[in-house]
Amino acid sequence: MTAGIVAITGPDSEGELRELAAWLRGEDELRGRVQLFDAVVVGVTSNSAGVFCRSLIAWLRRCREGRVSLKVKRSGAAEELELDCGPASDAEQVLGAVRGFLDKA
């Protein structure tokens, strides 16, 4: 199981990043792994990535028509994965990209 960190950025009109952080903290598997700085920062593993991706897409569909950018960094690696997500994004495709990146040797 590989661990990593996801930084989520986007337009922070009306505290959207604060709302997103609170939304993600509501997920049992992410509780204690979500912090808010200039971005929402979430510690994920290949196991918790599914909960993270599905929750993020659900929040985007429920709350906004905007987009967010994800930067995923795998523990111990210098490379990053960058993705843009919006309400029309497919959670399973985002999940596949994140898991594939985290599990990459």
Spell out the key features of this protein:
five-stranded antiparallel β-sheet, 105 residues, alpha+beta, 36% helix, globular, single chain, 3 helices
List the helices and strands and how they pair.
Layout: E1 3-9, H1 16-25, E2 34-36, E3 40-45, H2 49-63, E4 68-74, E5 80-85, H3 91-103
Antiparallel strand pairs: 1-3, 1-4, 2-3, 4-5
What does this structure look like?
Strands 2-3-1-4-5 form a 5-stranded antiparallel β-sheet, covered by helices on one side. The model has no long low-confidence stretch (mean pLDDT 89). It is of the alpha+beta class. A hairpin with a 3-residue loop joins strand 2 and strand 3. It has one domain. Helix content is 36%, strand content 28%. The termini are close together. It contains 3 helices and 5 strands; from the N terminus they run E-H-E-E-H-E-E-H. Helix 2 packs antiparallel against helix 3.
How is this structure best summarized?
The chain is of the alpha+beta class and 105 residues long.
Outline type: globular
How many domains is the backbone divided into? Answer: 1
From the alpha carbons, calculate the radius of gyration and give it in angstroms: 12 Å
Helical coverage, percent range? 25-40%
Number of helices: 3
From the helix content, strand content and strand pairing, which structural class follows?
Answer: alpha+beta
Strand residues, percent: 25-35%
Strands in their spatial order, largest beta sheet:
2-3-1-4-5
Profile the largest sheet.
5 strands, antiparallel
Distance between the termini: 11 Å
Poorly predicted parts: none
Order of helices and strands: EHEEHEEH
Q: Using DSSP, what is the number of strands?
A: 5
Pfam family, one: EACC1
